[in-house]
Amino acid sequence: MDTGYELRLRAVELAREGWKIAAIAAELGRSSWWVRKWVRRYETDGDAGLVDGSRRPKRSPERLADTVRVEILKVRSELEKHRHANVGAKAIQGRMQRDGIVAEVPSVASIKRILKDAGVTRPYHKKHRSGISILGLPAMIRAGVWQQADWVQDLWLGGGVKYNSLQISDVGSHMMSSGQWFHRTVYNAVKQLVGQAWLSMSIPLHMGTDNAFAQSSHRDNPWTLWVKILLMFGVEVIVSPPGTLGYTNHVEYINGLWRQRTINRWHYNTLDDLRTDTDQFVEWANHNRNVLDEDIFGTQYPAEHVDTIADQLRWLPDGFDLDSYIGKGGLNTLPIAKGRITFLRHIDEHHTITIVQNHWHVPESLPGGGLVIAGIDTETGNLTIRHKDDIVAQHRYPMKPATIDPIHAPVTTGLLDHLPPKHGAMS
Asked: How many Cβ atoms sit within 10 Å of the Cβ of residue 1?
């Protein structure tokens, strides 16, 4: 028997025994929205409503009850009151399912037709987001595995005041954090990471960024506060060239979504005004943007997915204080913890790659411009360079081996260790 069917039937049985929806969700490890959905389907269709597969509509879109048409337009009107919300058919359908507005929620196609008949549709322009990487991209089906961070630089407020915006996203859950800063510094990035992002998204196993997050001007202290804080919490640090490899594509999409819903739509004179509106955008994006596959995640909503599996995720310890690790002159005093730092690097014309301020040779048999993965084990100080699936060089990185254990256990397998094939992998 289908285990999915058994789980849905168990939810119905508990509901009929008088269990509260939240208690059923906790018992079965699913969301409250998921429980309500299958209970409603059982009430409407009996056992047949609990079976996987699409459900054939019982009536044509033209014959939907007038009350359903009214509810569709009412939900759209409610969504439109939120300055950042989607108001399309998929968003309306998600809200109707989530709130249990009608027993049988119309299809997206039916909702589109009703919106068109009412003259409240907007022009649609399909967005193209690259999911292509010459390495292949690992599939993400849960929160807390892979996060990405990226700055949008040199933006302007009214009156000619320059600022920067940092987005941090969780690839699996689609949760996001957004912060605006006058100064694009690693310290501000870490403040947002531990003071905002990780409080709602959890601490990931892997974090991807571009080179700016790992560059340091201190030759005797080459690892930035960003790198050190990730290592301290058992996160693999992944550093890649910006824009070309697909390893920051999710956060770049989030950057675009933030711009579309805030600065491209509204005018802001002060950073406080923009921050307030951004907080409202993030609240909508995390709690009311139905982007997840319900059959995989048990919900369409990012924050609801994270709440459902919160006890399986990694979180900051109570009382963690970032400022206690900042010394005189702003120099970070955070120690290096045991872990992994992984760099994606192109081979230059001298058959070397550059990591922070050091240059490392690779075999001349490898093509210039080719891509390698260079991983540093901070506990041993060993630098291992791989091309495709082969180790092509090993060096000792000039650092004192880490002796401090991270707060959370470090990952034992790197995100790039076993990638799906994509266009022949690396060239």
From this structure: 6
In the chain, what is the greatest distance between 2 CA atoms, to the nearest angstrom? Answer: 74
User: Which runs of consecutive H residues, i.e. helices, occur in 313-423?
Assistant: none
DSSP letter assigned to residue 404: B
Extract the runs of DSSP E, i.e. beta strands, from 158-304. 161-170, 176-181, 206-209, 236-239
What is the DSSP code (8-state) at residue 421? P
φ/ψ of residue 48, rounded to 5: -60, -30
Q: Tokens representing 121?
A: 């549709």
Rounded to whole angstroms, the Cα distance separating 41 from 296 reads 18
How many CA atoms within 13 Å lie on the side-chain side of 16?
A: 12
Hey, which bits of 203-291 come out as E strands? 206-209, 236-239
Phi, psi of 209 (to 5 degrees): -145, 175
C-alpha torsion angle, residues 252, 255, 261, 264 (rounded to 10): -100
**DSSP code string of 123-158:** -----------TT------SSSSEEEEEEEEEEEET
Q: Which two tokens stand for residue 98?
A: 């989530």
The more confidently predicted of residues 274 and 398 is 274
Mean pLDDT of 221-237: 90
3-state secondary structure of 359: strand
pLDDT digits (tens, 9 = 90+) for 56-84: 444 444 456 778 888 888 888 777 777 77
Task: Tell me the C-alpha distance between 206 and 298, whole Å.
Answer: 24
Query: Residue 164 pLDDT more than 70?
Result: yes
The pair of three-digit structure tokens given for residue 356, joined into one six-digit string:
């922070």
Q: Where in the chain is the domain with CATH 3.30.420.10?
A: 140-427
Question: By the 8 A CB rule, do 379 and 360 touch?
Answer: no
Instruction: Report DSSP letters for 364-388, one per residue.
Output: TTSPTT-EEEEEEETTTTEEEEEET
**Has residue 254 got a pLDDT over 60?**
yes
The kind and range of the H/E element at 27 are: helix 21-28
Rounded Cα–Cα distance for residues 335 and 373 (Å): 25
Fold that domain 140-427 belongs to in CATH: Nucleotidyltransferase; domain 5 (3.30.420)
- Reading phi first (left if > 0) and then psi (alpha if -120 to 50, else beta), residue 145 is in alpha
Helix residue ranges per DSSP H, 298-338: 302-308
Identify the pLDDT of residue 377: 94
Measured between its terminal Cα atoms, the distance across the chain in Å is: 46
